[in-house]
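Worked example 2:
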Amino acid sequence: MQWACLLLPQLALDTALRQQPDPSLALVLVSGPAQRRMLHAVSPRARQLGLRRGMLLSAAQVLTGELVCVEYDPRAEQATRQLLASWLYGISSQVSLDFPHALALEVGASRALFGDWPAIEQRLHAGLQELGFRHRLVAAPNPYAACVLTHLHPRLGVDDSHLLAALDPVPIERSGLPADAVTVLTRSGLRTLGAAFAVPRDSLARRFAPQVLAHLDALRGLQSPLLRYFQPPDRFDARIEFEYEIDSTQALLFPLRRLTADLAAFLCSRDGGVQQFDLWFEHDGQPDTRLSIGLLAPERDPAMLFELARNRVDHLALPAGSRGLRLQAERLPPFVPAARDLFDPRPQQAMPWEQVRERLRARLGDDAVQGLGLRADHRPERASGDADATGKASPPVALPLRPGWLLPQPQPLHDPHLRVLSGPERIESGWWDAGDVRRDYYVVETAQGQRGWAYTAPDASAGPFMLHGWFA
């Protein structure tokens, strides 16, 4: 089992349903001219109400009043195929879109990372269910056989020794052969692939075009026609259009969650993260509203991306109702997961610092969260200050002992039982900015056992001492 085929029998419908908060709606896709609107696809609920593909829209509206109509958009269907191909790229680097309504991927080389076919199948099945796509999954020695077998089996794995036994009962109508070849074969009494395989090659070569014999050989693995492999794009761009104007930010949460989940799936396929993405709120009659969301470090967790976007949207005042929501991401740097200890002492519900930092920035604003960084100055009151909140400043290799709490202003230290633990450390600096200091610092211990950092005038070891900070 070297290849897997993912058949998406209701891709266009699933594309529309996954954009609805309630997927159990009686939803139909509508196509055709304005004078003769027809149902292109119907949801399970609409089918229960008696609606069928090909029915006139006017007849469907007579049968039920709870109908939800969505215009069939081939471009949205194609964009969804591209999204799924990008997601499958996280499983295999060889993904093909050459088969109609299906995607093929090479899984033989993926076993070393993801396990055997049952493990890969379960991974794909769970991911597709989470993304909201009905599907069929079959693995076979070649992509052509896997694609044909998906029309008969929802989930199957076939190896080389059982390939012919699985292909023989396949009806010739579902073999993927051209329509004219299917007509000739069925009229000749060859109604299954097994019967077609039994016909001598010379006889088939005389009666049919070369592509018929080539397809039958490809199904059995006798030859392998080249496939075009998918290359994931360098940017993410997805859009959800609404049936009516949405004024409430609460109503935007579902499409926002769907878009951030799709972004996370796209990022996992690239083994990358996102450091900035833009949300575009589309309006009728006026320019779209842009909300740019920046992160301090690349991230790709869907829950975190949604939470950050949600906090920003909650503070956004839209000038008018929104008819669509678009998410664009172009800065997609490599993603490096935060290092964690094997025996992490933190409780399971504890949140990593990176997520806490980003949530605080989302709730309080980009400028409300600042980091503490070192400065190239020996004077204690000027040796540190505000920096970016990434916390990535590189400290010196050998940092001298400093207190954790530095007082805003030094204070006289009156303690007759003061004990000097270490020192002095001469600090003499600042002549260039009229802030010249010349002090001898000591680590001292008070009568109450408190450990402080105090200084005296140069060469005045007996005091008086000025307290500048406390050690923890």
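The domain at 3-25+66-220 is CATH 3.30.70.270 (Alpha-Beta Plaits). The chain has 15 helices and 19 strands.
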